[in-house]
């Protein structure tokens, strides 16, 4: 079972944060799968387990930290006695202030999934924690699990605060960076600025300045990292939020267009049809029909998944 919390965000955007503890005897053998979210894994008791990803393998030890971003297939071999914590999050939606995060070597790798797996061997741990660090990480993971399963006032705040503590612990363990940042790390500030302000009118020149690049170099590096131009990336973020609001709220199309940063509902409608090949109204109706079907009595009960 994955314990999730929903962090309430301005303009109705929602962020999922979750944790899943897997104990000895409860992990499937060579169960290749990918995720729609990012996953930080704390290896507690490997007992000979091997991590497989993208056709390569790596033997695990206690204290290893594995990072998987969306779209990457992975599995564990000799997983019968494996014990671990999985921390699940959506990096492109996290309401994080950058502050001095880029002074830590792993920060940009952990908090943005855009191109961050293209230059590393994802089967290998991103780092190995010392025993004192691992004890602290296990404590924070346990506290996060308690916060997510509880109903105390301020549950969301408490859960997110613990997650930040755990994220900082991992990134600090990864060490500092050179004064000359990799181009991917230079773009992190611009990506985070976009992810937090994509509903507003954004000037490309200002984004390039945020990344400390010329306009031309910013365009080239941004496309290399994300596969899209800055304007296309902004449009995709707006459309993604529009899709979520259509699925989860009863807001009118005009209200959704406003919340997502479109000029009006007609503008959103044109962009939506180009991207999703259907109108916003059609998508909303299909989701409502699917929800109504799921409420009907079913003949079969799905089996509970172990890991």
Outline the secondary-structure elements.
Elements lengths: L2 E6 L5 E9 L15 E8 L4 E4 L2 E4 L4 E5 L5 E4 L5 E7 L17 H5 L15 E2 L2 H19 L5 H19 L9 H15 L6 H7 L4 H12 L3 H19 L4 H8 L4 H12 L3 H15 L13
Antiparallel strand pairs: 1-2, 2-8, 3-6, 3-8, 4-5, 4-7, 6-9
Kindly describe this structure:
The protein is an alpha+beta fold and 307 residues long. The protein has 3 domains: 3-173, Jelly Rolls; 183-227; 232-294, Homeodomain-like (Arc Repressor Mutant, subunit A, Orthogonal Bundle), CATH 1.10.10.60. It has 10 helices and 9 strands. The chain has helices spanning 107-111, 131-149, 155-173, 183-197, 204-210, 215-226, 230-248, 253-260, 265-276, 280-294; strands at 3-8, 14-22, 38-45, 50-53, 56-59, 64-68, 74-77, 83-89, 127-128. The longest helix is centred in the middle third of the chain and has 19 residues, at 131-149. The chain is globular and about 60 Å long. The N and C termini lie close together (8 Å).
What features would you highlight for this structure?
307 residues, alpha+beta, Jelly Rolls, Arc Repressor Mutant, subunit A, 3 domains, 6-stranded antiparallel beta sheet, 43% helix, disordered C terminus
């Amino acid at each position: 079972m994955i314990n999730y919390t929903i962090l309430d965000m301005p303009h109705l955007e929602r962020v999922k944060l979750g944790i899943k503890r897997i104990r000895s005897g409860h992990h499937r053998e060579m169960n290749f799968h990918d995720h729609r979210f990012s996953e930080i894994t704390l290896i507690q008791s490997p007992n000979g387990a091997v991590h497989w990803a993208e056709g390569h393998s790596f033997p695990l030890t206690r204290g290893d930290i594995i990072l998987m971003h969306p779209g990457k297939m992975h599995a564990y071999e000799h997983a019968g006695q494996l014990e671990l914590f999985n921390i699940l999050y959506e990096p492109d939606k996290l309401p994080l202030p950058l502050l001095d995060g880029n002074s830590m070597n792993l920060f940009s790798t952990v908090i943005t999934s855009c191109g961050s797996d293209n230059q590393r061997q994802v089967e290998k741990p991103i780092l190995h924690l010392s025993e004192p660090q691992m004890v602290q990480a296990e404590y924070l993971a346990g506290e996060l699990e308690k916060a997510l399963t509880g109903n105390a006032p301020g549950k969301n705040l408490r859960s997110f605060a613990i997650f930040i503590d755990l994220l900082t612990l991992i990134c600090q363990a990864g060490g500092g960076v050179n004064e000359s940042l990799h181009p991917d790390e230079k773009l992190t500030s611009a990506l985070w600025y976009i992810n937090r302000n994509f509903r507003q009118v954004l000037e490309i020149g200002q984004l390039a300045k945020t990344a400390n690049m010329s306009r031309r170099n910013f365009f080239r590096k941004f496309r290399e990292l994300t596969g899209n131009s800055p304007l296309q990336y902004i449009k995709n973020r707006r459309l993604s939020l529009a899709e979520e609001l259509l699925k989860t709220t009863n807001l009118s199309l005009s209200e959704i267009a406003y919340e997502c940063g479109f000029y009006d509902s007609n503008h959103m409608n044109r962009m939506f049809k180009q991207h999703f090949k259907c109108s916003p109204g059609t998508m909303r109706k299909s989701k409502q029909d699917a929800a109504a079907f799921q409420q009907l009595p079913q003949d079969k009960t799905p089996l509970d998944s172990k890991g």
